[in-house]
Model the fold of this input.
Amino acid sequence: MNVFYRMKKGTEYLNYGREIITGYCEKCAEDFAEGESIRILDLGAGTGVDLINCRKKLVGGGKTGIELWALESYAPNVERLRRQGIRVRCFNIERDRFPFQDESMDFIIMNQILEHTKEIFWIFGEVSRVLKRGGGCIVGVPNLASLHNRIALLIGRQPTSIRALGPHVRGFTRKDFVKFIETDGYFKAEYFAGSNFYPFPRQVSRILARIFPNLAVSVFWGIRRTGKEGCFIHILDSRFYETPYYRGQENEDGTQEDRI
Done:
């Protein structure tokens, strides 16, 4: 196992799929005219790398009216984001209503954040509310079905993407996420890619991830908000998953507050 760890050392940054993020952002911005405002929101923005990369990519392609927004709770990152000219809101994305008007965002980034969350119905309910109809969202997560995770399970080891003593509380595979996100027609998955490939060195990893994205370390989906009325959280109205997923604050009479 130590041999494998040494082989993959130095490739970990590929897990974030930076080029995949900017590439899909550029695709979603193709219909915008030069100077037209494009509002980009990053959930769990970290230090703002993806936002800055997207702005550079779009400005380099002739788009100039770029607004960068971030939801981030870690104080040092909040300050760093603000110093870079990014507008930041600090709150709990699993409990709070996003502080934006309906259909106010053109593109949303969710890179290596969902695996840390339980309340994905609430999160995508809010994404479906603030993202414009036809707007794009890029989602990147560790791949539960990666080659190295499959090998780990085969020999009776825990997959690295989700462990009891670890930060991740969810695991994702390609088909399962598509089934989730396309439920009831609020979103449509239109793009899929993989990044990094343990335990191979950098250049080999890049090639293998392109050829076999289902086995890559991280996987990415480009999804579009459809024209369907309503909010993704409403899929819980007709389904029971034996878990009390958060659906918003209750009113005094015990009913749920308006989620749209």
User: Anything to note?
Assistant: Residues 251-256 have pLDDT under 50 and may be disordered. Strands lie at 38-43, 66-71, 87-89, 105-111, 131-142, 187-195, 218-225.
